[in-house]
Amino acid sequence: MLITYILGTRPEIIKLASLIQASVREGLPFSIIHTNQHYAERMDRVFFNELELPEPDHHLGIGSLSHGEQIGRMLTGIERVLLSRRPAVVVVQGDTNSALAGGLAANKLGIPVAHVEAGLRSHDRSMPEEINRVLIDHLSDHLFCPTANQAGYLAAEGIHAGRIHVTGNTIADATLSYAETARQRSGILRRLGLSAGAYGLLTCHRPSNTDDPAHFAALMDAVADIAAASGFPLVFPIHPRLGESQRRAAASHRRIALTDPVGYLDMLALQQNAALILTDSGGVQEEACILRRKCLVLRRTIERPEALENGGCVLPASLEASELRSAARTLLQRPVDWSNPFGDGLAYRRILDILTASAGRLH
Ligand code: UD1
Ligand code: UDP
């Protein structure tokens, strides 16, 4: 019996890597469907190469479309593949359109759905990801939660306790596996002329930050201000969502150094050596905490409140420049007693054990 992993974007590749790697090692029959929601070499192929993942069995070639058309085409393509060889379980990760389409296509065919990173809630229904999460959780048969917090949200929404498992987040599997390799192999600091501990790392790709040019420009002014006050440059690997006007707005600040998106080893090296991380990315918030780097969240809501608990991560009261400046100053000054709530690097083990037990054996 077959496990089918469905993925489509950068974070899904990284966060499903430990499960796919273990499936290869343990000789579990599996297949991979790639929707190609992300397709640029640096958003996709680089992660298959660095994480040594097998070539997907099916490329759906969906690419960038309006959400409705994107999800619709994914549904059709995924259903066709699932009908050609019915898996025992379909595994989706996170909250993207690819994960929603994968879960829904499987559910409609009566194929059990496993949701990795279940139960996250920002309680902000204007985020496309929030709607996706709720829908995926409610159609899933196995819900793998990073921490007990998410299990609590799911129980409160009426999801049967027998479906909910606390496993840790697979981001910890990837981060802990590759942090040392990144330290040894990445040459990104040298290439970008950076010194360890003497720069900030910025990522920004949420529609709420990027899609309104005036808001994005004000945010860049604010983070450049923080960089100037702290006396360091900011490295900004640019997500391809950002168009020409956003790139120009960011590049107009001499303290902000734009780069193309970087591979996973370079990203881990950049994070491990940063004095401060400023981000609206979910995965980067988790990694910052695991790698013990201070993190200022460039958002108004958070679905990973665990990151805030040890004081190493701050959710500002607003995205106004003065608020961001004061949050960054406080964060940079305060001592942090680091702890990692996101997992011990063995989430994949718990997930595979539960899946294999529930399907008898997936062989
Ligand atoms: C998607 C996810 C988001 C996740 C992010 C990870 C949804 C609704 N959103 O957002 O939850 O945090 O991925 O990075 O699923 N583009 C390229 N090349 C690529 C990919 C994208 O040029 O390889 C550009 C296109 O202009 C595209 C835009 O980026 O229209 C947005 O891509 P899309 O996949 O729709 O959403 P993301 O913002 O990447
Ligand atoms: N990442 C990367 N290179 C980059 C930016 C991010 O490898 O240039 C990694 C990052 O380390 C994390 C994941 O991509 O593991 C986060 O993906 P993203 O921010 O695109 O999505 P989100 O986590 O917000 O859904």
Q: What's this, in brief?
A:
This protein is an alpha/beta fold.
Strand content: 5-15%
Helix content: 40-55%
Helix and strand sequence:
EHEHEHEHEHEHEHHEHHEHEHEHEEHH
Low-confidence stretches: none
Termini gap: 5 Å
Q: Judging from the principal axes of the Cα atoms, what is the shape?
A: globular
How many beta-strand runs?
Answer: 13
Count of helical stretches: 15
Supply the helix-strand structural class.
alpha/beta
Q: Which ligands accompany this protein?
A: uridine-diphosphate-N-acetylglucosamine, uridine-5'-diphosphate
Order of strands side by side in the largest beta sheet? 3-2-1-4-5-6-7
Q: Would you tell me the overall average pLDDT?
A: 97
Largest sheet: 7 strands, parallel
Question: Over all CA atoms, what is the radius of gyration?
Answer: 20 Å
Describe what you observe in this structure.
The structure is a single chain. Helix content is 46%, strand content 13%. It is of the alpha/beta class. The strands form 2 sheets. A 7-stranded parallel beta sheet has the order 3-2-1-4-5-6-7, sandwiched between helices. A 6-stranded parallel beta sheet has the order 10-9-8-11-12-13, sandwiched between helices. Strand 6, helix 6 and strand 7 form a beta-alpha-beta unit. The structure holds uridine-diphosphate-N-acetylglucosamine and uridine-5'-diphosphate. Uridine-5'-diphosphate binds next to helix 1, helix 12 and helix 13. Uridine-diphosphate-N-acetylglucosamine binds at residues 9-11, 37-40, 43, 64, 95-97, 128-129, 205, 240-241.
